[in-house]
Amino acid sequence: MKHWFKDGVFRAVLRNAGYLGSTKIIGAIFGLIALILAGHALDRVTFGVLTLVHAYALGAGALTKFQSWQLILRYGGPALQRGDARTARDSIRFACGLDLTSGLAGMTLAMIALPLLATRFGIDRPHLALALIYCTLVPTMSAATPTGVLRLLDRFDLLAQQQLVTPVLRAAGAGIAYAGGLGFVGFIVAWYIADIAGDILLWALAIRELRRRDMGDALRPGLFGVARRLPDAWSFVWTTNIAVSLNACWGPISNLIVGGILGPAPAGLYKIATTLLDSAGKPADMLTKGFYPEIMRLDPSSQHPWRLGIRTGIISGGIALLVVIVILLGGKPFIGLFGHKYLAAYGLLTLMMFSLMIEMACFPLESLLYMVGRQRAALVAQAAATIVYLAILSVLAHAFGLTGAGSAYVLGNATLALFMLVPVLGSYRRRSDYAPAPQGSATG
């Protein structure tokens, strides 16, 4: 392993991941503090409704959003390197148009569908009005253009700082709601203000950086006109977007399914377990963000990128093993911070934690498929795994309750890893057929 660190690309992946990961971990801690305060202030049912309202808005955004940041990096990055400011502007304008259109459509559909689906998802009628207002966050929650702009302009420092805003404000608002005894309304308002403030700041930072480079007009939305000037833009957008959106909606959709089958109280316990797993899995997210730009510069016909994928997967899997040990030793006391009424989530967490090892060890697979231009294979794998997972979740949750839901989560992640591994192995065997990959997209 000492030899691995002689590889400059490997060091760059870890450096970039550490840069973003430092603030992400701090933000995750503040997010957990907000949940702990809500858990103490609210009963199990009301706490579950709070998580379901947030999950509904996230799910609506995930189902309708475009991964516009990928588009910006795919077309804008090479354009800026060759001094083609117009193409870079077109990529940002197209991304902005996609975000505006999909965000408004997602919000409208979410608000129309909510009265019909609320009771099925465990959101009761007294909380329906606030849930409808919360849906107005969908356009900003689902917009990825400012993130793409800051990555394009190499302002990862600003992204790292911005990551702290929403969780810190959410924790502060939760503290006020807890101290003031403001109940469900206080917490939903705290969640809303934190989300909108973080999103507005992200847009403000992107606008400032574009103006500094005399590209302020790049945020003027465009669709069909600018897309015609970007080769195969629509094909790229649909292929990569569907795959990533399917992955992004796993958490919110599964939480809604659990709420619909088992009720809001079990959904709250499920939310605690998945939130802890999500926080524990942040290193893999950061490694992905560091892994992608480096691997796209390498020759896929050589063994270097494939070895890099194995090495980063081993490092990530080792981190996951340490996290699992920490969960086994200290998970129960930690969940106790939410309140004794939520200790039942510990058993669920100890079951679901095995999915963390699978997810973190296998994170390079999708990026490797993008590297060799096999976006459609990644989409097929993601879609098939999502269908299998949701089917298993519905069946096992009905049959075995929360234990079944936790088992389905593990099986779903294992299915996704297997479906990704098969085309990756095939691509590796045919690696000599691939020319050096152009800069493209990956998961984020």
Automatic annotation (TrEMBL):
Cite the entry's keywords alphabetically. Cell membrane, Membrane, Transmembrane, Transmembrane helix
Instruction: Tell me the InterPro entries matching this sequence.
Output: Poly_Biosynth_Transport
Q: Where in the cell is it found?
A: Cell membrane
**Leader sequence residues:** none
Per the record, membrane topology reads: Multi-pass membrane protein
Q: Where are the membrane-spanning stretches?
A: 21-39, 45-64, 92-116, 128-152, 164-182, 308-331, 343-365, 377-400, 406-425
Cross-referenced PANTHER family, in alphabetical order? INNER MEMBRANE PROTEIN YGHQ, PST FAMILY PREDICTED COLANIC ACID TRANSPORTER
Q: Can you say what this protein is called?
A: Lipopolysaccharide biosynthesis protein
Species in which this protein is naturally found? Sphingomonas abietis
